[in-house]
Write a structure and sequence with these properties.
The protein contains six helices and no strands. The protein is mainly alpha-helical. Keywords: Membrane, Transmembrane, Transmembrane helix.
């Protein structure tokens, strides 16, 4: 059972990571809202009417901030639900099915094979646990990377917004 506990702890860790990734999207969305709000403070109708007439540093920064916001939103959406496809997290099975496998299917299989080909419930459960955990790890790693990219673009956008606010304030 030592081996089973080891793999179970890895599985539990990945489940916790999944829940943490689900929760961790709130702060980036708040920052994204803040950036959009800060940028909308000093932009009005007159600003956009003159937007294409003369291209100044402020307009270039707004375009750059807009692009970084879009890229960040893309990675946030991808991290949260894989661009509307969702994540196909695998599960072990229903407990009823696991019990049936343990009490009926394994004994039936073992009665038909030689001694060296016999299966044990613990070994088969560990194999299934490894498969499911690897699936969760793959999804969680991709989600973590996407969330990291979203946060990076949010930070860039926040810095550019700060610089832009300083420029607009002293202009």
């Amino acid at each position: 059972m030592e081996s089973f506990n080891f793999y179970k702890s890895i599985y539990d860790r990945e489940l916790n990571r999944r829940m943490d990734l689900d929760k961790s999207i709130n702060i980036p969305i708040t920052i994204l809202t803040l950036i959009i709000g800060l940028n909308s403070i000093y932009t009005d109708r007159e600003f956009f009417e003159d937007f294409f007439c003369e291209l100044e540093v402020v307009q270039v920064m707004i375009i750059t901030i807009g692009i970084t916001i879009l890229i960040s939103a893309f990675f946030l959406i991808k991290s949260y639900n894989n661009l509307f496809k969702g994540f196909a997290y695998r599960n072990l099975a229903l407990t009823k099915d696991i019990r049936e496998f343990e009490t009926k299917q394994i004994p039936d299989y073992n009665s038909q094979v030689s001694e060296e080909d016999k299966l044990t419930f613990e070994t088969e459960l560990i194999e299934r646990l490894i498969t499911v955990t690897d699936n969760h790890t793959t999804f969680n790693d991709q989600r973590s990377l996407d969330l990291y990219r979203a946060k990076t673009f949010l930070i860039v956008s926040l810095i550019l917004t700060g610089i832009q606010l300083v420029i607009v304030t002293f202009k």
